[in-house]
């Protein structure tokens, strides 16, 4: 039987996730297997929690990585805090806001959607109007919407939620480790993320953090949440001082997350955020020099993911297939109403490097030219280089 793993080529991952992984993180996954209650592993767990708090920019005691992808973090945030009949206000400006609303609906919540045009952030004034409609348990927003590339402001939303007696839930899947999440400073009560985006760790874990108010809500809940596996009271007993058995932790994934977080902290959060900003600006400048139209206004874009309209007459899938097969680069197609009309380009974590932007722009230019839409590649590269001069220097 053919060993398909041996035939895998190196791929530059510049889609909406996963991102490319640092070699040291991959090596960490190959560290010796030990038991998930081994005292040495418990020390690794403690260190991982400390690193997670630093990256979330929080002092929250209830901070841990759930065993599951980012969607498990989303579901945990819903099933633990939303009860049947609760009123939940959800920002609907992209695919993942819609997923949050669907999860809350399945919990039996009264879901109030605050609909906004795709490609634009949810307005605080609209949230306030929705909150005025009745007692609300939770306001849920996607911080960096992976389907559109919009960066959602959180401070005013947190203030509006708290004035109405609600908690603020933030989806930080595409922002954690690449964009300031600043959980404590912004007043976010609950936040979750995934490991495979700006943290540049393979997918499989969902970092989650809850402040004291949210933690008390978990403790005070009458009855158990409908999910045993994602019950935060039970999971926290394993990750806390008790070390009470809940499930077998994905040991080697914790190794990988530990190393990925160490790389974030060693680089320094501000330096890492600035790298993501500069690399994104380089990508934007290069795309605009090709006369391609970016979807989201610059002051509303997240540096970790860029959406660009596909030129008229160009086949979305054909370009992405050629990028992968010929150039070894993966980008993403669009979701929902933008499917076939836009590309999603990720500059996350290890993928957010100037050399990757140059390689991608040159490859995209070759693909567009082959399919009948010639662009100025030299001009694009020069514009990108100028925009990233601070990093290159």
From TrEMBL:
Cofactor(s), by name: pyridoxal 5'-phosphate
Binding residues annotated for substrate, in chain numbering: 344
InterPro entries: Aminotrans_V_dom (IPR000192), Aminotrans_V_PyrdxlP_BS (IPR020578), PyrdxlP-dep_Trfase (IPR015424), PyrdxlP-dep_Trfase_major (IPR015421), PyrdxlP-dep_Trfase_small (IPR015422), SP_NH2Trfase/AEP_transaminase (IPR024169)
Residue span, Aminotransferase class V domain: 33-331
Tagged with keyword Lipid metabolism: no
Residues annotated with N6-(pyridoxal phosphate)lysine modification: 197
Coiled coil: none
One Pfam family this sequence matches: Aminotran_5
Keyword Transferase in record: yes
Record keywords, A-Z: Aminotransferase, Pyridoxal phosphate, Transferase
One of the record's GO molecular function terms: L-serine-pyruvate transaminase activity
UniProt record, GO biological process: glycine biosynthetic process, by transamination of glyoxylate
Family of the protein in this entry: Belongs to the class-V pyridoxal-phosphate-dependent aminotransferase family.
Protein name: Aminotransferase class V
Species whose genome carries this gene: Limnochorda pilosa
